[in-house]
From TrEMBL:
Organism: Propioniciclava soli
Protein name from the UniProt record: DUF1349 domain-containing protein
Alphabetized InterPro entries for the sequence: ConA-like_dom_sf (IPR013320), DUF1349 (IPR009784)
Taxonomic placement: Bacteria, Bacillati, Actinomycetota, Actinomycetes, Propionibacteriales
Pfam families the record matches: DUF1349
Signal peptide annotation: none
Coiled coil: none
Length: 195
């Protein structure tokens, strides 16, 4: 990102308070509550809106990156970036442990949720960076592990009339004790192109 602004953890406000969020040098170690998640209706029939996200403004023409390391091991452990306007309009993007595999993907919600995911088992235990980039009525999601090339995860529609905020999030739908070590949070110019 050009003209990158490194955001301090104090720059954001929590959507839902985590069990704990402790500074560890420049990092922030977050423990989400057992049962926390983000999902609306589709297929499962329930609404969850209680995963902790630490959000700051993300205007049109801007991008946000979040880096983290963790030891995902239980069903639906997840971490990444949350882009949110309100309870019915949000995107969560990052990695999730499901059915014995680590996957990179995104859930895009406009009233109801969808889910796209692809396996990245080789990313387990390594630093991961997720990037969301706003451009008009679209958000582009990219991710990478350590210094690998960026991987396009998703291009999705969003309502440009809404005020969007973004930042690190994590969730632990099936267990207590998950901790995610967030190592970086920055905001800069949106991606110039999709390719």
């Amino acid at each position: 990102m050009e003209h990158v602004e490194k955001l301090p953890w104090s720059a954001g406000t929590w959507t839902t308070a985590p069990v704990r969020a402790d500074a560890d040098g420049d990092a922030l170690v977050v423990e989400p509550a057992e049962g926390s998640d983000l999902w609306r209706v589709t297929s499962y029939g329930f609404i969850h809106d209680d995963a902790p996200g630490l959000l700051a403004d993300l205007p049109d023409g801007a991008a946000m990156e979040v880096s983290f390391a963790w030891g995902a091991s239980e069903q639906f452990d997840q971490a990444g970036v949350l882009l949110r306007a309100d309870a019915e309009h949000w995107v969560k993007a990052g990695v999730e442990f499901a059915d014995g595999h680590l996957g990179v993907g995104a859930v895009v919600t406009a009233g109801v949720s969808d889910w796209s995911v692809g396996r990245v088992d080789g990313w387990q235990g390594r630093e991961i960076t997720v990037r969301v980039s706003r451009s008009g009525d679209a958000v582009t999601v990219r991710a990478r592990c350590t210094d690998e090339d960026w991987r396009l995860v998703r291009v999705a529609p969003i309502d440009p009339a809404l005020a969007w905020r973004a930042g690190p999030f994590c969730a632990a739908p099936t267990r207590a004790g998950l901790t995610v070590r967030f190592t970086g949070w920055s905001r800069g110019a949106a991606d110039a192109s999709l390719h």
